[in-house]
Protein 1
Amino acid sequence: MKISVIGTGYVGLVTGVCLASKGHQVICIDKQAEIVNKINSKISPIYEPGLEDLLSNVIEKGKLVATTDLKSAVMNTDISIISVGTPFGDGKIDLRYIESAAKEIGNVLKQKNGYHVICVKSTVIPTTTDTLVKNILEDSSGKKTGDFGLAMNPEFLREGKAVEDFMYPDRIVIGAYDQESFETMKKVYEDFFDSPIIRVNLRTAEMIKYTANALLATLISYSNEVSVICEKVGNIDVKEVLEAVTLDKRFNPRVNNQLINPGMVSYLRAGCGFGGSCFPKDVQALSAFSNEMGYPPFMIQATLEINNAQPYRLIERLLESLGTLENKKIAVLGLSFKPETDDIRESPSLAIIKGLLAKKAKVIGVDPVAIDNTKKKFPQNDSLYYSADYKNALKDADAAILVTQWPDYIKISPQEFKDLMKVPILVDGRRVFNKSAFEAAGVQYIGVGLT
Ligand code: UGA
């Protein structure tokens, strides 16, 4: 099929490249000429494992091209997938990029003969596609929905695993306005044999996406809340508690007498909180929308509040141990919101750096790839500096806080901490280290959910 993809952020580009690799003819559209040039030169503007190789491959095969010219792209394709950003701002989701994309497409549809489907892939609050987008398309094209198709097809891509998640989806959700829109969208995915296709209406598709992210975020906050209770009681390890709980066969079934340890179980582990470009933004948007609809969402709101407090709990624990943080050198191990990405959006490391600086600590941030991005947010100064070398950061430090479980950091031995640091105290914000081994080496170990 001939497909145009509007917006080449991480969702748009992964979508365009993966669909082209499945044999579709794809045109990617972005307003920024610099990004378009990069794509056409086979350079991925974002870091995502496997993406650049696939991009290079589909460009060489003539299956994908990028342009700033939305009009010709829509004119020459059968489907337009909207994958522009939907940030959270001023207390609610900001839909301005969706609005302008819909308007521009509608203006082209006015002049276009033949059937065209518009599909929203961006994460948008329920009712966006069947009211806002539909109305804008009808107004700007002068046509009625039905003359053109309308669909909502959410993405379920994890950063760092986006190509794999796109190529092997757990489910393909197609919210469709009518049968013809659905049949057209189904053809886009006809090569994704094993994945179930779920047909729903437009607003249900939107709700599925939010519910999926809010559920995962809520599991994380639930585990973090339990961790605080364990800390308050004392002599209970949240890790033991949650590991035992998740052995329930409804979480962790046995197949051929082997536990399958589903990925979902990892969301039921205590840590320093969730971050990234999706969970915080989507959970806030859902909460704001629910309030607007007249229902204050208690659980979703609590998920956010627990998450906002969690990074500061690590600082409190450190304070209990050191008495004061003033002029203490604290190494923050890991800045990105999770390993294998340079993305620092809403990373717990940012709240931790802020909290440490407020207590007048001297902070050194360590990360293999995310230092440049963090510097833009918190420039280097007398109290804050950065190093890509963890040894440099740990040298003479009064304490270290593990925030991101980068493979190189979780391999640091207790002896290395002991030898490098002035006062060997480790706050394990991800519960990846072995407390006994650290204590045996003479390192004070502070773990989330363990006193
Ligand atoms: C998330 C969802 O996992 C995807 O299914 C969804 O498609 C995507 O958002 C999206 O809406 O686009 P992502 O933000 O890439 O994907 O990352 P996750 O791996 O889910 O991690 C999110 C945050 O939760 C991170 O800060 C991570 O450290 C934290 N997390 C994750 C935990 O604290 N515990 C875990 O077990 C897993």
Protein 2
Amino acid sequence: MLLLEERIRKDGRVKTGNVLKVDSFLNHQIDVKLLNRMGEEWYRIFKDERIDKVLTIEASGIAIAVIAAQYFGAPVLFAKKAQSINIDGDVYSTKVQSYTHNRIYDVILSKKFLHEGENVLIIDDFLANGCALEGLIDLVDQAKANLVGVGIAIEKGFQKGGRELREKGIRIESLAIVESMDAATGEIKFRKQ
Ligand code: 5GP
């Protein structure tokens, strides 16, 4: 999506450790118009599917998922990060290695809100090594719901998540795929899609 690529080029900042900062428009200050265009684009891509739930993970996925979900007319469910959990049977839970914070979180989702046979679209801000996505997919599987596909705002194509998950047959639609980025020069190259 050209609009998103242009915005990343203009306002994205490449940090050491392969981190792209987009907090001036995506995950701290939020450009609502841009998020609307992204929602429209995912709707164009997935409009032939029935979507019962849009699933994301807190915190930065929520705004993106909420705006996208309006196009699908479906509720948003966000998986919660918990410091520690008492598994009392009311929640699905999984573990996610955090890319940006270098630690493992327990992630939970109430069984009340995701049911067998429901069609799920996952939306998230970044795809890097795929840990967050694997955790969300695990929750969908535990609920015996159906994963229709995944909408990612920014995929870092030089990290393994996208390749590995597509090889497993998961439909991943990333609006921008960063092919390479250089913390020294600030240069960002995108994969042609
Ligand atoms: P993964 O689990 O695929 O390795 O990483 C995905 C999660 O880590 C995303 O939900 C996002 O919050 C965070 N993340 C990964 N890479 C970046 C990055 O380059 N910049 C920012 N801002 N977040 C990232």
